[in-house]
Design a protein that fits this description.
This protein has 146 residues and is mostly helical. The chain has two domains: 54 residues; 76 residues, no CATH class. Helix content is 82%, strand content 0%. It is built from four helices and no strands. It is rod-shaped, with a radius of gyration of 36 Å.
Length: 146
């Protein structure tokens, strides 16, 4: 043919070409999004594994474990303070002056404060708490995770 085209055939080929190109573009976008999601997932899994390793080595603590350890310390302080009146009652009652009573109370409070100031973080106690929590998490399992 001398530079002429069949219109209906040319239009159909052009439409098929555009549709295929649009489909290829969409597939490329989806493929790129899938690859990005896979990279993000791998990075997240690596970060979680590192945090779990840090936790097991005692380099990182979960907030619920810190809260529980702090709660234990608070109960220790509370128990010591609640026991104070019983420990001091007889000694204070035997004093002749309020100054003597105040001195006995002051000495006991200072002894209690020294005891609390010497409180030390116990990594073994923390490890035990982590192991207990991990057993509970492994045994319990959430329904949502299945």
């Amino acid at each position: 043919m001398d530079g002429r085209f069949i219109l209906s055939d040319s239009v159909q080929r052009y439409v098929a070409f555009k549709a295929k190109r649009d489909k290829d573009d969409e597939e490329q976008r989806l493929d790129k999004a899938r690859r990005t999601a896979e990279v993000t997932l791998r990075a997240s899994k690596a970060q979680i594994a590192k945090m779990e390793a840090d936790e097991l080595r005692g380099k990182m603590h979960r907030s619920e474990d810190v809260a529980a350890m702090t709660e234990d310390l608070i109960y220790t302080i509370r128990g010591s303070l609640m026991a104070l009146p019983g420990r001091l009652a007889v000694d204070v009652a035997a004093t002749a002056t309020p100054a003597e009573a105040a001195e006995i109370i002051r000495k006991e409070v200072h002894a209690l404060m020294r005891e609390l100031a010497n409180y030390q973080y116990d990594p073994e106690k923390y490890e035990e708490r982590v192991r207990e929590r991990r057993k509970w998490e492994a045994g319990g399992g959430d329904v949502d995770d299945e």
